[in-house]
């Protein structure tokens, strides 16, 4: 018996295979019994009405189940029941009657009690008093003394299309449409202000007075619900909830100020009856229903909240006073008083499980016996204490918390094939020259010591790489194997060749587990061997402490037939790359310990450089060469080449924003023309259209053209984002090699210059903010910069000048001995800036005059170029094929021309968007 579990006082099942919702239960003395005992009224979607009167004194043996006599009435009403309410709905008397709302009618019933003369007791009958047919499908209703009457209750029915219909007992009064209606929501009546409060689909509460609803009409007053015109109804007040409302209650208890209690999906709101927020409480669970209750606390709001975790919470304002576990998830919960239970909790779930419960425990009659007094042996107590302290010290000595392998652990492994697939799995993707895109198979195996249920395996890879199947579900698994294929799904150079296989499951004890396996894809998946190029626009030279190795031995899978026999030059080309098919050439020096990588596309050099360094380290490690190979970069930092790639991406972002702005303006213009035309067509005296139809058609064609331009810009943005990611990784690698950074410093640098290019928030401005912070902390030139830290606003800039200045200054300060450190030692690193630098404002960081990171002419011949053994005459000629996917060129008037290659007929197609 637990204090934290509700006690079952009475329970039953209201029907079988029936469904119930919030309005399907109410509590009232519906038979007008003189003992004033509450009855439980339920109505199901199957159309069955039931009335219960729990009588605990009839229970035998202490059981909590319902007796047959507890069910007073069970009757089929024809159609499904939406809501039941009890109130004074008959004009001839003030007794309680039952109102039942169905989809197309609302009926009022009276409970007739016939006293029995035999032991079976009284007889109860359901008598129809009157009913109103509804012209619209009903959603919910509320009751109250509308208009300030006394001793009577009227009904307000809300329909699915936003009309509220008022019924003054046996008489229909009027119907009104609510403004801005989309979907119905909860509604309640506040008697103090004589107004209706309802939750709208725009996640707001709106209040309408009964008087405004009654007078807001131009239609002739007649007994009809068919309305189509009238004055616009205005709300007296509104409140923004910011979430959907589940349930609403009006609190009119004497000890509590008049309030409106709203249960939202994530919060509980308490407002005054004039729409002022009294308090709000954030929930960390998913609520299902709520009910306020009366207490003796002055000025406090007390209420119960049930959750989908079968928990019942008791709140006083925003404080949680108690929590108890329930057996079901109720959809409606109420408080009631019965013969021997005052303040019982009545709960009904969606399947008809009806329960009356209470909090606390039954009193226990057990009395603990008196304890036997005995003397304390202090010596024995000291010995026991010392032994326990030894156990504690032994258990706290080791700080190594290793996860032991259990019986329900899962092992995940991935095996990458050595060769490409003979038949490519990228069936519908071809490169520009008609050559099929290759794919490679990866075998993923799962092994378990014991069967594991519900295992989910997902494969994650960054674009433009793709996988044939990314999700596997297993109901039970012991050992299994999957084979998936990886391939290039779209044009572009990937910035990373790593994929991840992630398996998620639950152990037998219910604990969640995640197993991650890294998959490294080979370079031959995205690049193919081609003849080396004799010239190139961009060149990077890497120095080593070892004699140059034979490139055919370093790249046995990519040397191909096009490499020369000496192994001093190989050429690589990206599959499906449509940027005029750039060729990456790798050259090994004859008489110097250096390698050169050259290409006409700067970002395409990243993957070959990364692969070259990894293969060189593995090659010399396999040869057991001492000392180990060291690689560094001693040339000028190619910042201008990097800035050109970033500038292309930024210009595409500007074009996209301009296209979105123009599309929004044309859409607004299109809607305005539609409204004008609609007003002309509705006018009883036709007026000339004044070329509005021509303007509408022209605007429509502009919207179509701008939509196509937005799609093309999005494709171009994805391509430039891939280029920026590759260029950023290449620049970080060169900075690391140039300054011989440690792994920790390199990690900080890669976090500052992130290769995760995202366009939702803006990569340029977010990266610039990180660089500004780094320049004012661990790379600050004085202690004054540490006190000028501010959080910048991440808005799209007008150009990339600040970004270029900050990257240049970062490289310059690292070249002068600066270090990237995070921690208390950051303030000890002070880099002396050269003349001309201004760092008081982040926007005025200038490039020092004569800095070695200044502009470098593209394709400039590097020192020592004659050392490379392959002469230009020995290299085969280069044939450039293909055409650029998209090009952006500014117009003189400020517009932008978006070029999309050829249109299939050989002619180049352009879409010009005027800046006006």
From TrEMBL:
The lineage's top-level taxon is Eukaryota
Q: Cite the InterPro entries for this sequence.
A: PHTB1_GAE_dom, PHTB1_N_dom, PTHB1, PTHB1_CtH_dom, PTHB1_hp_dom, PTHB1_pf_dom
Biased composition (Low complexity) is annotated at 894-906
Can you give the residue ranges of the PTHB1 C-terminal helix bundle domain? Answer: 741-814
Q: Which PANTHER family match?
A: PARATHYROID HORMONE-RESPONSIVE B1 GENE (PTHR20991), PROTEIN PTHB1 (PTHR20991:SF0)
Pfam families, per database record: PHTB1_N (PF14727), PTHB1_CtH (PF23339), PTHB1_GAE (PF14728), PTHB1_hp (PF23338), PTHB1_pf (PF23337)
Q: Name all PTHB1 platform domain ranges.
A: 522-630
Q: Which residues form the PTHB1 hairpin domain?
A: 636-737
Region Disordered: what ranges? 834-916
Q: Which organism is it from?
A: Priapulus caudatus
What's the protein called, per UniProt? Protein PTHB1-like
Kindly list the residue ranges recorded as spanning the membrane: none
- UniProt domain PTHB1 GAE: residue ranges: 435-517
Tell me the ranges covered by the PTHB1 N-terminal domain, including all copies: 1-363
């Amino acid at each position: 018996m637990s204090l934290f579990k509700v006690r079952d006082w009475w329970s039953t099942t209201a029907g079988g295979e029936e469904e119930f919702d919030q309005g399907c239960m109410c509590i009232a003395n519906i038979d007008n019994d003189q003992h004033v005992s509450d009855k439980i009224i339920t109505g199901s979607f199957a159309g069955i009405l039931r009335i219960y009167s729990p009588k605990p004194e009839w229970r035998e043996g202490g059981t909590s189940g319902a007796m047959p006599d507890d069910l007073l009435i069970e009757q089929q009403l024809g159609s499904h029941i939406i809501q039941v309410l009890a109130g004074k709905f008959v004009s001839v008397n003030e007794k309680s009657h039952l109102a039942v709302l169905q989809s197309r009618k609302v009926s009022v019933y009276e409970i007739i009690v016939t006293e029995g003369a035999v032991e079976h007791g009284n007889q109860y009958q359901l008598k129809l008093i009157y009913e109103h047919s509804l012209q619209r499908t009903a959603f919910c209703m509320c009751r109250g003394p509308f208009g300030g009457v006394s001793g009577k209750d009227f009904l307000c029915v809300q329909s699915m299309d936003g009309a509220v219909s008022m019924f003054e007992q046996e008489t229909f009064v009027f119907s009104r449409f609510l403004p801005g209606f989309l979907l119905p929501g909860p509604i309640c009546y506040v008697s103090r202000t004589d107004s209706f409060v309802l939750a709208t689909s725009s996640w707001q509460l709106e209040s309408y007075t009964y008087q405004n609803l009654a007078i807001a009409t131009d239609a002739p007053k007649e007994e009809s619900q068919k309305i189509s015109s009238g004055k616009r109804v205005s709300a007296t007040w509104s409140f923004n909830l910011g979430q959907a409302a589940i349930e609403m209650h009006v609190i009119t208890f004497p000890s509590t100020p008049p309030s409106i209690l709203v249960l939202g999906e994530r919060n509980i709101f308490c407002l005054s009856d004039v729409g002022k927020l009294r308090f709000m409480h954030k929930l960390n669970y998913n609520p299902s229903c709520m009910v306020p209750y009366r207490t003796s606390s002055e000025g406090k709001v007390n209420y119960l909240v049930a959750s989908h975790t079968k928990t019942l919470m008791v709140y006083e304002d925003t404080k949680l006073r108690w929590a108890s576990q329930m057996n079901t998830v109720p959809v409606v919960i109420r408080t009631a008083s019965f013969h021997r239970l005052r303040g019982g909790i009545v709960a009904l779930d969606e399947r008809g499980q009806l329960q009356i419960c209470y909090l606390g425990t039954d009193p226990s009659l057990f009395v603990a016996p008196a304890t036997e007094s005995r003397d304390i042996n202090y010596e024995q107590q000291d010995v026991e204490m010392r032994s326990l302290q030894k156990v504690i010290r032994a258990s706290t000595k080791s700080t190594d918390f290793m996860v032991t392998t259990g019986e329900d652990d899962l092992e995940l492994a991935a095996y990458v094939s050595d060769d490409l697939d003979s038949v490519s799995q990228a069936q519908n993707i071809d490169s520009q020259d008609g050559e099929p895109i290759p794919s490679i198979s990866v075998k993923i195996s799962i092994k378990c010591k014991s069967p594991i249920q519900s295992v989910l395996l997902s494969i994650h890879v960054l674009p433009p790489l793709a996988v044939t199947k990314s999700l596997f579900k297993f109901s039970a698994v012991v050992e299994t194997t999957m084979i998936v294929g990886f391939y290039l799904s779209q044009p572009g150079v990937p910035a990373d060749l790593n994929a991840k296989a992630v398996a998620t499951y639950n152990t037998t004890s219910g604990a969640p587990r995640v197993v991650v396996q890294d998959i490294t894809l080979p370079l031959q998946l995205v690049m193919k061997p081609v003849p080396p190029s004799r010239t190139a626009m961009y060149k990077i030279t890497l120095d080593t402490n070892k004699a140059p190795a034979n490139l055919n031995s370093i790249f046995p899978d990519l040397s191909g037939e096009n490499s020369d026999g000496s192994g001093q030059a190989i050429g690589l080309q990206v599959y499906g790359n449509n940027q005029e098919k750039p060729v990456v050439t790798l050259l090994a020096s004859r008489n110097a310990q250096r390698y050169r990588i050259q290409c006409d596309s700067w970002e395409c050099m990243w993957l070959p450089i990364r692969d070259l360094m990894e293969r060189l380290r593995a090659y010399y490690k396999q040869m057991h060469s001492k000392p180990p190979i060291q690689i560094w970069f001693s040339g000028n930092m190619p910042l201008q080449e990097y800035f050109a790639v970033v500038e292309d991406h930024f210009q595409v972002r500007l074009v996209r924003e301009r296209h979105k702005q123009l599309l929004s303006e044309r859409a607004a213009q299109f809607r305005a023309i539609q409204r004008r035309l609609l007003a002309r067509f509705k006018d009883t005296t036709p007026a000339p259209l004044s070329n509005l139809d021509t303007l509408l058609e022209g605007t429509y064609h502009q919207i179509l053209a701008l939509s196509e331009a937005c799609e093309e810009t999005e494709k171009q943005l994805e391509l430039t984002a891939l280029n920026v990611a590759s260029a950023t990784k290449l620049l970080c690698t060169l900075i690391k090699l140039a300054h011989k950074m440690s792994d920790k410093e390199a990690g900080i640098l890669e976090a500052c210059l992130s290769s995760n290019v995202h366009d939702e928030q803006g990569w340029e401005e977010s990266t610039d903010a990180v660089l500004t912070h780094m320049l004012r902390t661990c790379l600050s030139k004085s202690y004054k910069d540490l006190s000028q830290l501010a959080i910048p606003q991440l808005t799209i800039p007008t150009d990339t000048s600040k970004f270029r200045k900050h990257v240049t200054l970062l490289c310059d300060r690292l070249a002068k001995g600066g270090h990237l450190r995070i921690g208390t030692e950051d303030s000890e690193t002070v880099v002396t800036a050269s003349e001309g630098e201004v760092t008081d404002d982040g926007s005025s960081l200038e490039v020092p005059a004569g800095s070695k990171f200044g502009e470098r002419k593209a394709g400039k011949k590097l020192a020592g170029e004659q050392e490379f053994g392959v002469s230009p005459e020995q290299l085969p000629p280069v044939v450039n094929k293909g055409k650029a996917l998209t090009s952006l060129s500014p117009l003189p008037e400020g517009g932008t021309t978006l070029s999309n290659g050829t249109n299939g007929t050989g002619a180049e197609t352009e879409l010009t968007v005027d800046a006006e």
